[in-house]
Amino acid sequence: MSTTRDLTEAPAQTHEQTITCRGERFRLYLDSDRIQKRIAEIGRQISNEYEGKTPILISVLNGAFMFTADLMRTIDIDCEVDFIKLSSYGDEKVSSGQVHELKSVDANLEGRDVIVIEDIVDTGLSMQFMMNRLADYNPKSVRVASLLHKPASTEPDLTLDYVGFEIPDLFVIGYGLDYGQIARNLPDIYILDEK
Ligand SMILES: O=P(O)(O)OC[C@H]1O[C@H](OP(=O)(O)OP(=O)(O)O)[C@H](O)[C@@H]1O
Ligand code: HPA
Q1: CA gyration radius for the chain?
Q2: Do the bridges between strand 162-166 and strand 141-149 make them parallel or antiparallel, or are there none, so unpaired?
Q3: What is the pLDDT of residues 75-112, one digit of tens each?
Q4: How far, in Å, from the CA of 2 to the mean position of ligand 1?
Q5: Fewest C-beta in 10 Å: which of 23, 74, 130, 134?
Q6: Which pLDDT value is given to residue 15?
Q7: Membrane-crossing residues (predicted)?
């Protein structure tokens, strides 16, 4: 029996060591226990640092939906959530270089303590776009929480206040991150296997 599951043929849900997605091989990189433990640490830190305030989490769809839901459950002070939808990758493994805003924020962010929630900062173009966009809304403060960061790939000078894991410059899938829209439902994060 093969130990490599092909995501395009059968849904993969748990902890396979290797999977294939759109004909490319990926290996397990961060399992769900490790992800959830790190998220709980970030949630505790945010709860302490924002005590007495009511921050609003701005989740960057689609990729950040899972991280946002899990992170929010670990924050034990009052907080709100709203969503923006950006897209720049299409079905490819590299950024198109152009960030499109497909849905804007609905909440009034003027004077608010905003925490931007991302699944990944890769080239940094989406986050740079977010920072420019937020400046229009005149918030009181802006911080960023990103589950993953690829420092070797990030070009703009960005301040990332809460980072789950720094990872190498290789394509990753799972836990909200897609390859051509599939693989978001994996509870673990897989990395492109270059071997
Ligand atoms: O730092 P960057 O190189 O800009 O990459 C990061 C962005 O790319 C992904 O979004 P994508 O455009 O793929 O849309 P999605 O969230 O709907 O998958 C991810 O969710 C981030 O928003
Ligand atoms: O490595 C990645 N995987 C999935 N989506 C992404 N968007 C930016 N980088 C990535």
Answers
A1: 17
A2: parallel
A3: 999 999 999 999 999 888 988 899 999 999 999 999 99
A4: 32
A5: 23
A6: 81
A7: none
Pocket lining: 171 vs ligand 2, CB cutoff 6 Å? yes
Calculate how far, in angstroms, residue 99's C-alpha sits from the geometric centre of ligand 2: 14
pLDDT digits (tens, 9 = 90+) for 155-193: 999 999 999 999 999 999 999 999 999 999 999 999 999
ipTM comes to 0.98
* Distance, CA of 167 to CA of 151 (rounded, Å): 8
Contact 5, 25 (CB under 8 A): no
The structural domains of the chain, ordered by start, are: 37-89+96-171 (3.40.50.2020)
CA of 67 to the centre of ligand 1 (A): 13
Annotated catalytic residue 122: yes
Q: How far is CA 32 from the centre of its chain?
A: 14
Which structure tokens are listed for 128? 């740079």
CB atoms within 10 A of CB 13: 11
Catalytic residue among 76, 106, 113, 122: 122
